[in-house]
Amino acid sequence: MAYSEKVVEHYENPRNVGSFDKGDESVGTGMVGAPACGDVMKLQIKVNPATGVIEDARFKTYGCGSAIASSSLVTEWVKGKTLDEAAALKNSQIAEELALPPVKIHCSILAEDAIKAAVDDYKKKHAH
Amino acid sequence: MESTPHFPIYMDYGATTPCDPRVVDVMIPWLREHFGNPASRSHAWGWEAEAAVEKAREQVAELIGADPREIVWTSGATESNNLALKGAAHFYQSKGRHLITVKTEHKAVLDTMRELERQGFEVSYLDVQDDGLLSFDVLKAAIRPDTILISVMFVNNEIGVIQDIAAIGALCREKGILLHVDAAQATGKVEIDLKTLPVDLMSLASHKTYGPKGIGALYVRRKPRVRLEAQMHGGGHERGMRSGTLPTHQCVGMGEAFRLARLEMAQDNAKARALHDRLINGLKDVEQVFLNGHATQRVAQNINMSFNFVEGESLIMGIKGLAVSSGSACTSASLEPSYVLRALGRSDELAHSSLRMTIGRWTTEAEIDYAIETIRQNVAKLRDLSPLWEMYQDGVDLSTIQWTAH
Description:
The complex is a heterodimer of chains A (128) and B (406). Chain A is of the alpha+beta class and 128 residues long. Chain A has helices at residues 5-12, 65-78, 83-87, 91-98, 105-125; strands at residues 27-34, 39-48, 53-62. The termini of chain A are far apart. The model of chain A has no long low-confidence stretch (mean pLDDT 94). Chain B is α/β, with parallel strands linked by helices and 406 residues long. In chain B, 38% of the residues lie in helices and 13% in strands. In chain B, the strands form 3 sheets. In chain B, strands 2-8-7-6-5-3-4 form a 7-stranded mixed sheet, with helices on both faces. Chain B has a 4-stranded antiparallel sheet with strand order 9-10-13-12. In chain B, strands 1-11 form a two-stranded parallel sheet. Chains A and B meet through strand 1, strand 2, strand 3, helix 2 and helix 5 of A and helix 8, helix 10 and helix 12 of B.
């Protein structure tokens, strides 16, 4: 199967690879997927507590090239967004941007789940 | 064949081998001037084609120690498997309706068995040991009074292990059960002598042994005689077992490929063994790398490795200078990892992290060295990206994690 240019570009030069300290109060972590399915994504956001704006993001992904590209793209997109804006990201936008074929749509769904999970994690930390 | 490296470097001989140029050369005249139908009995065009087909049949028979009259031409090993299993099951169904095979067989056997189940036969699918080999005790225990046929592949296409066909055949003889062997991946790599090897039906492929695609054969034993019900009707070619005009050039090609395989097997295997060892030695010190399949009871042409915490498809995307295949079936719509590796009891991560490299007649040391280099680089790069690797480094036991399956 041939990959789209954008998938290859993100795969070759993944953005924002790495990890934040999970225990940091300003960090929200989302880990989704399962080794059994062949994809695990860990997505982290660093939020400015005063403004609620995501200032930085990191990811690590075990999965195919499309899964890596989807998570790499999302880390770029969420920077500068509020938590609610980030949580509103749709997998269809990711799939469209990366020109994912139908069998790879699940990669974009996973990336959407990952950002939602990261936002939820941050909100839980600050619920009280 | 010229030795200039062509990118990507071909390391997928298990999928198909290049057609040997010497094979192509002998095929061409049978496409050009000698176009006769081998079944035309009334003129010289037919006679010469028939003679060519029969000479090729002898060459195929000779590689496996068979009589030419025991060779039935087919379109390939898939058809041979279908003819052997359906043909024998249908012919012998009054004796019993139970068949036995192994979970790691090729889909051409497994899917045919599923079809026979649909037709009312019962099939036992046996587990293998974690080295990929069939346990003799497991096989013995599965045999029932109504078992009519056992099908076990000679060499596994994904992991390269060689089953003990001589022992399995002896057991089948003792119990009066037919043995079918899919030898598509074995010819030219393993010595086969059906004069002494107790096998009743054997499927053969041309394009895994440097012959053309679209041709194969089924060995059908004459003494003791094995009967089949034809699956293809229309003219009664091939002793009534498989009708259809024979493709002279294809038969000639397979014959020449098998003749060369017989002459060059020792040399091919020695070379493959050295390259196999070179590749393994170049990768064995990578952390968390596992060899799939028995370490010694295997063909040298197959190297199947799992690089833990790296997903196979992404690794293949990275090592784009190599044409290899992944045990992971993630490229298809299903998210299931290789059923063969699962049958070995490999964890999901390892089954998703496998790479099958199959080498052959034209693989070079320089190509192996390139493969080692690019695999090492990409495994390291992808592990930097892998949350599983990070967890492993932190001492987290992945089997204790509650994953959110999707």
